[in-house]
Amino acid sequence: MHAEITVLADRLSQAVGDYRATAAATVDQLAHPIDVVDAGLPVARLEVVFRSPHVASVAVRDARDPHRIGLVTRARFTAAMTGRLGFGRAVHARRATSELTDFAPMVVAPSAPVSEVAVRAMERYDERRYDDVLVAGEMWRAASTADLVRSLSTQLAVRSLHDQLTGLAHRAMFGHALARRCADASVAGARVVVLLLDVRGMGRVNGQYGQAVGDIVLASLAMRLRSVAPAGSDLARVDGDELAVAVTLPGAVDDAHAQSLAEGLRAHVVEAMAAPAAGIDPRAWPALDSAAVSSAAGAADPEALVALADARMRAAKSR
Q1: Which helix (H) or strand (E) holds 133?
Q2: Which of 114, 163, 205, 266 could form a disulfide with 292 if both were Cys (CB 3.0 to 4.6 A apart)?
Q3: CATH number for position 232
C-alpha cells in the first residue's frame, strides 16, 4: 500500500508540482484571456491572429447580435485553410470569419465547478470534444479541455490521498510522508518528532449536538492545527478522532534535548488548540489527549516512532 501511495504521489509531483495547490475548484481559476474578433473579419486577417503559436482559439462576436458568440479553433482554421486539395487559403481568404465559426460553443460561468465542466466538455462529440470552453464575464476568456481534465484528475487524486472532511492526509499518506521524512533525516543526521492528538469525547458531541456539528468541530480542529503546526510539517487524520503531526528537528543536542523539544511542541499545539473556534458552542469544543516522541539522531524508524507514539497515547488516556 505504501509503495502504491509513493508512486502516485511522485507521479503527481512530477506532473503538476504541488498537486494539493493545483486542483482548481472553479473554471475561473483556469481561464485565460482570449482574442475576440468580429464575425465579418476577412479570413485573411484572421490568419494574422493565428500566426502567434500561443493562440489556440479565437472568440467570434456577431455585431448584429451581441448575445451571440462563436469559436474558431486553430485545428478547424488550419483544416479550412489547407482544404482537401490544398486550395483552402485561396477559397477562404476573402470570406468572412463567420463562415469558419462554430456558433454553438460550450459557454460556462466563471463560478462553474471544474468537475462538472470537464465532464461536459468530454461528452461533446467528434472534433468538438477538445475545443476550448468559453468563460463568460466582463471580458471573454477560455479554458482548455486539457487543463480542465488535468485539474479534475488532480482533484480526484488529492481526494484519494486526503480525508475529505478535514483536508488532512489520511493514514496511508501519512505513513508514506513519515517514511520519506525519516529517510531524509537519516541522511542529514536529524531527528523526527511524531505528535498524536486524540480528540476526546466526540461521541458525546455527536450525540448531544448532532453529526453536522461534530463534523464542523473536526474540520475546525484541523484548520487550527494547520495554523499552529511548524512550517513544513506533515499533518494527518489517522483515525476517526485522531490527528497526527510529523516534523523534523535538525538541531537537537542529545536525546534529552530532542524529547524536551518534542514535549514543547506538544504543549504549544495543545494550548493553541484549546480555545473554541468562532461560532462553535464552547461546550461542544473537545479537549485533547496528546503524546509526542522523538527519534534518535539520524536513525528515525517510521514504524517504531508510530508504535512508541501509540503506546504513549494509551498511557496518557489511562491517567
Answers
A1: strand 133-135
A2: 266
A3: 3.30.70.270
